[in-house]
Amino acid sequence: MEELNWGCCVTNESKDDSYITCLKCKKRFHYACMSLDDNSFSPEMENVWTCPECVRQVRKGFKNDNTPVRNVSTSRVNKRLALNSPVVEKEESITRESVCSIVQNCLSEVMKDSFAKLNESIKLNIQNEMKPLREELITMNTSMTLLLAQYEELKAECSESKRKITALEVENNELKSNVCDLQLRCNNIEQRLRQNNIEIQCIPEHKNENLLSIINNLATVVGCELDSKEILNFTRTAKANRTSTRSRKTPSSVKERKEISWI
Fold first, then answer.
1. What are the boundaries of the region Disordered (predicted)?
2. Which end of the chain is more exposed for a tag (fewer CB within 10 A), N or C?
3. 126-138 burial, b if ≥16 CB within 10 A, otherwise e?
4. Mean pLDDT, consecutive 10-residue segments, the chain of 263 residues?
5. How far apart are CA 113 and CA 121, in angstroms?
6. Does residue 71 sit in helix, strand or coil?
7. Nearest residue to 257 via CA among 189, 186, 193
8. Which CATH number fits domain 1-86: 3.30.40.10, 1.10.460.10, 1.10.8.60, 3.40.640.10?
């Protein structure tokens, strides 16, 4: 049996199928493989029919003929492979999930680049804004360090002043105690000195009077032995009442106390 040269199927699985022969390459094609209706072809059309591959070759060679060309599909369900034809990998169908995945990947890359650029821009702006603040903080830190040093100096001076004040207070208390003691001693001495004082009243007062002579005469009159050398001082005191007509007092101080007997 003569082996048929098929251009559409690897083997002639359906030998009863009708076919058509190409005018150029003489290959046979099933009507079903070429999606053709065998009832629509007349014998004249079958004799001049050319397969799509030969039609493309004619177009590439710039040949011009009147062979009718139809846009036919070479795929059908349960299509038989052509002889010596390369194995064509089945294309994956595009689904909504795959499109969404591709779009998400693209958006992710775009957003990633955008966020990276935005991050760099924000970082640069923050650095530019923070630079004056950093300089001010450095200046403030220097000022605070200087103020802290001055504060420590003032603190040391204050501590030294407190120590001196405490020492002065102790010394002042000691001086107060000494003053009180001295005042008491002075009072005692004054009291002792006043024991030897003689106050004479109602002595007529005259100009150019000699108080020493008057005191000696009075001592002689009252019978008291009194030496002029024993009299330390004598004077007249001011009047307590200036309008009084009485003479001023004449206090006298002697070395030792004398017993005076009035006659």
1. 240-263
2. N
3. eeeeeeeeeeeee
4. 67 63 86 78 80 78 51 47 49 70 88 91 91 90 92 92 93 93 88 73 78 81 76 74 68 54 35
5. 12
6. coil
7. 193
8. 3.30.40.10
